[in-house]
Write a structure and sequence with these properties.
Blueprint (H helix, E strand, L loop, with lengths): L11 H10 L14 E4 L2 E4 L3 E4 H4 E5 L15 E4 L10 E2 L3 E3 L1 H6 L4 E2 L4 E4 L11 E3 L3 E3 L3 E6 L6 H9 L16 H5 L2 E4 L2 H42 L12 E4 L2 E4 L3 E4 L4 E5 L11 E8 L8 E2 L4 E3 L1 H4 L5 E2 L3 E4 L7 E4 L3 E4 L3 E6 L6 H10 L1 H7 L10 H5 L2 E4 L2 H40 L12 H9 L1
Parallel strand pairs: 5-11, 6-10, 18-24, 19-23
Antiparallel strand pairs: 1-2, 3-13, 4-12, 5-7, 8-11, 9-10, 9-12, 14-15, 16-26, 17-25, 18-20, 21-24, 22-23, 22-25
Amino acid sequence: MKRKEISTTENTERTEVDAVASGHSVVNTEDLPDGFQMTELGPLPKEWRVVRLGEVAAITSGGSAPQGGQYFLNGKNPFVRVQHLDIDGDYVRRWDLITDEAVEHYRLKKFPAGTIVFPKSGAAIRLEKRAILLVDAYIVSHLCAVLPKTSKVDRWFIFYSLRAKRLAEDKAEGYPVLNLSEICDVPIPLPPLPEQRAIAHVLRTVQRAKEATEGVIAALRELKKSLMQHLFTYGPVPVTERERVALQESEIGPLPAHWRVVRLGEVGKVITGKTPSTARPEYWNGHIPFITPVDLNGMPIRVAQRSITEDGLKKAKPLPKGAVLVSCIGYIGKVGVVDSEIAVTNQQINAVIVESSKISNWFLAYAVMRESNLLESRARKTTVPILHKTNFERIPIPLPPLDEQREIARMLQAVDAKIAAEQACRAALEELFKSLLHELMSGRIRLSDFPLEEKLDSQNRNA
């Protein structure tokens, strides 16, 4: 049975009780902004209603996952599992392919493209994933399916309403479950249909910009990979001239004939980090970066997640600006370069203070990145892999003339700078999306007068 709409003119006491039960602080209705009403979801515009998800959408779930390779061999029917849902993406873009026999044997139900899906059982519900089927597909029983059932709601608005809600917060540890009945009972705000579509359009526009940025980042990473392969094989020459480069075979692969291969310990002093006592608070939370492997991402390091004081520095091993850092315990081969005037590291990192007359620090950093597999192969295989200092110093690296080193480093740094700029853009778009999701779904930003042309209206309903 549908619940009665709650408003400031109808049962104010009931509304305030519901607001407390849903975690909202009670707001005196006299303090509400003009044009707002108090609801169980907090203050909302008076033109909006609060409905249960089950009132506006059919709520169901998928079926059993086919077991046995014969049900997947040459299959053509998409079958979506929990792991196929990306954390941030709006669409389900991956799936298994199952046979017609699997569909018949397990009596699976096909869901149309546009169905909203999210995990309803297991630890995955805590990730609060939400996605929309890109194609007609069958889905696993661990997924809930939401299909809007009235022309008075916009599918994309329902989708973003669910993205704005955390359904698993109160679930116990162990094997948490969202029952279909409680999913049906989830309250959501419901603006007039034109405003629903306007809200969905704005949020989708930001998401598309973010996805486009992610595509640029992926392309740049592939470019960097190809560029490193070229530069460390032929040197800093145009691709059209690589056939003219005389090559030699070396222990680390083909190299230009005029390059040398040296040991890492020949081009600088290697220092293993040291951690000041964590029992001495006067050593910590100062202004000097204390770098651990989590801070190494192939980029210049100006600050770290932790820092030490001048007193702490006396109990550590100071490193100058430009030192090349390489993680050698646990995750082997993460790289960074100190970009502050002074820094220290923990014992998981070996630092190389380079001899600048022999090698460019950034060329060394990129050379080590390229040889990460070699570093891993030289590590001692224990519960936690360890590349000891002596073995680290024996790692072979290419050594071109200094001018070529600097040009190689310059070209790769230019790509890295572009990647960093795109990552900053992606982070800004993500923050914008989160802010707009909250502000639009609470009615703090109104789009009731947002102009929707017929073409845009059709896109929101059919895309």
